[in-house]
## 1
Amino acid sequence: MSRLRFAFVYALVAVVAIGGAVALLLIGLGLRGDDAVAPEPPVAAGPFVAQPGQVERGAYLARAGNCGGCHTARGGLPYAGGRVIETPFGGVPAPNLTPDLETGLGRWSAADFWRALHDGLARDGRPYAPAFPYPDFTLVTREDADALYAYLRSLPAVRRANDPGRLRFPYGTTPALAVWRALYFRPGVFAPEPAHDATWNRGAYLVRGLGHCEACHASRDALGGASAAASFTGGALPTQHWYAPALAAPVEAGLADADATQLVQLLKTGVSPRGAVIGPMADVVATSTQHLTHEDLFAMAVYLQPASGANPHATASRAAPAVPDAPPDQMKAGAAIYHDHCARCHGDAGEGAAGAYPALAGNRSVLLASPVNVVQAILGGGFPPSTAGNPRPYGMPPFVATLDETQVAAVATYVRQSFGNRAPAVSVLEVARSH
Ligand code: HEC
Ligand code: HEC
Ligand code: HEC
């Protein structure tokens, strides 16, 4: 049984047990599970008139929060919902956010909207699944929430009924979500830290609140919760076979030696001298960060500098354990594959080509302790996002049909232990598990 599977079964048992206990407790108190959270009386949505500039401001904030990235199905109409957010506990479809009266937010008041974003509660008082990153959005200010609401109200109404949730029992039930919230959710608006300047605080607000970077870049326990101590420790995206590196650990995302300018460049254009974004991060850049102003990206970069205090664990970088040499046969096979299939773009010495092909020498994706990202890159290839700063990105072909698992393991091992790189060898089993 894989470790993930084990975690899942463990989580299931735990949730059933805890959920059952809570349900019993509630019955004991004479409450039904559904009443666990007392619903506020529904507020009628009066005619809504946006203040000057509010819609534009909301449109920008929606980019920063990547609302459209989740609430738009592939090939679907913007914000009409339908994309399913996969979690280890099942899929959660993102709802229609357009102002349609029957299927969207047409009857929602600004107060209903605030409650969803800030408290993670639906109009009828039911808690949302945290696939909606409200544990991060709770930091968003009321003013920004109102601007987001104004923007969503300004969109063309699209009639598209929401799909039923697909969380496996009992995860989607009110008692299970109530337990999850009791363990991991603390509502609270962002409070600027006086010890830091306005730039740092703006960056903290965007990274930890609206930008919900921790939704991916934090490790999760068996119940899918991230504790405060886990902030920016790096997180596996279990359903996608990608690993979001620790943003505050110098050995991983490597922001310690990447200056703020390089990070801004990566978030703005999808490419930087130290590597390209690939996989789920390419989508984040495409639909969110490339649209942010230089000032906001710079603020995020300032906040993420390890020395800036964003993460108390930053300096306690996980010192890389001594890496054993890969088997010589595997290195030899890997070298041959590299020279046949990879060197024409990434260069004989892994030096890449500026502006076109990322260098593999010193590349952070290649050097991560976990091999999942390098394996995903080789199997699936891909393009960095097309951005204003890099409108015609160079792509990489997928090798899933050209190379077998043994060959992928060999070439991945080769790039991890050549050109001055030093990361653990990759086994065939690890490749097999990555897709
Ligand atoms: C990572 C994906 C993701 C992102 C990003 C995201 N949402 Fe959602 N959102 C969801 C999911 C999934 C749900 C449904 C949760 C559930 O059914 O329990 C949801 C639910 C909602 C709801 C409740 C709608 C209803 O009909 O009950 C609102 C309002 C909402 N999101 C607004 C936003 C806004 C505003 C943003 C941007 C600031 C945003 N969302 C960003 C995934 C996302
Ligand atoms: C046609 C040119 C081309 C070939 C051939 C090619 N790559 Fe790539 N490679 C790229 C481009 C372009 C990117 C950036 C892709 C992205 O961001 O989605 C990339 C990205 C990568 C990455 C991720 C780097 C990062 O910064 O995240 C790895 C690892 C990688 N390639 C390894 C290989 C290996 C190993 C081979 C041979 C099996 C190979 N590539 C063949 C062009 C190529
Ligand atoms: C949907 C999940 C997801 C979200 C949300 C997300 N990331 Fe990522 N991020 C990833 C993954 C996966 C990678 C590794 C693949 C890659 O390097 O492109 C990554 C890579 C990165 C890297 C590159 C690190 C390196 O090795 O050079 C940076 C920087 C980064 N993310 C910053 C952010 C910031 C800032 C935010 C919030 C605005 C954010 N990410 C939100 C998934 C995510």
Note: The mean pLDDT is 84.
## 2
Amino acid sequence: MKKPVLLALLCCALPLSAQAQFAKPEDAIKYRQSAFAVMGTHFGRIGAVVKGEVPFNAAAVTANAEIVAALSKLPFDAFGPGTDKGGNTKAKAEIWTEQDKFKKGATDMQEATAKLLVAAKSGNLEEVKKAFGATGQSCKACHDNYRAK
Ligand code: HEC
């Protein structure tokens, strides 16, 4: 009688792992692709300002940068074991054999997006351009190694 209760407590005391959060690998893949897609959309809106296609408005850039910074934290819990295959994933197998390097790529990007937000809040377009370039480099560095074409 007491055992299931104990197991239930044990389960909830442990940190949630990616496997526990997603019922199927396909769900994790869809989740991370969706997070990247939304992040990419808002990053692209800042890119349009940086390229001069859209006039600079610090409040609008800040709103986009807030979304990019927040979403940059989401995809990586969805790269758990067993999610290397399934759906239409473009994730390369190296992600799971070079975990330290992949995780560093994620941290580098998260730091870059945090700086982009600071730059946006400064209201200085030159700062935004610099931080946007650095963030873009962090995206590219990971895609070059870990995303299939
Ligand atoms: C640490 C690695 C890493 C970093 C950093 C990274 N990405 Fe990605 N990204 C991936 C991987 C891996 C995929 C493929 C995911 C899949 O298909 O399962 C991906 C996919 C995408 C996609 C396609 C999503 C879809 O619709 O399937 C977009 C858009 C994207 N990333 C944008 C970005 C942007 C913008 C940045 C930087 C602000 C960024 N990524 C930073 C690894 C990364």
Note: The mean pLDDT is 91.
## 3
Amino acid sequence: MRAVCLATSLALGLIGCERESRRFSDPPSPTPLYENNAWATAEGKRLFQWFNCVGCHGLSGGGMGPPLMDDQWRYGHDPLQIHATIVNGRPNGMPAFGGRIPDPQVWQLVAYVRSLSGQLRIDVAPGRTDHLSGKSPESLKEREQPTPEHAP
Ligand code: HEC
């Protein structure tokens, strides 16, 4: 009897596996840990300078990269999409930083990038920059409503 039970539950288990795909390899998005955390977002701001994201995405759009402050997103404004952009790069000139930036720091960058277009709570987004000529603080940024992606 016990063997039958075992066989049945094994069989059910196998059927279960087929019907339900559990993606154990994808951990849940850690976004809330970073986006509700002012320190993490401030770290993202520091890293944005440190890895010279600012060189291409400069204060008001910068050189060759998109400004990241408006409602226009080529590859998506969702945290997971921004994470993928940073890790894998994008074809028209966005370098891949995967393997060069530890994952927690990538998430800090994601949070900061999102603060640039006002997606974070104002008590989390970074305040005024130390130097006077800086742009206005991220915490004062009006929230943009990202429009659907329009990848080239
Ligand atoms: C060498 C210049 C350069 C550097 C450095 C750079 N980027 Fe970019 N980035 C670009 C360009 C150019 C694009 C547009 C790519 C495309 O359209 O395929 C881009 C795209 C992006 C996007 C996608 C925007 C959208 O509309 O979907 C994000 C987010 C982004 N970069 C964040 C970062 C972050 C964070 C860093 C620093 C870790 C960084 N970038 C460093 C040039 C750069």
Note: The mean pLDDT is 82.
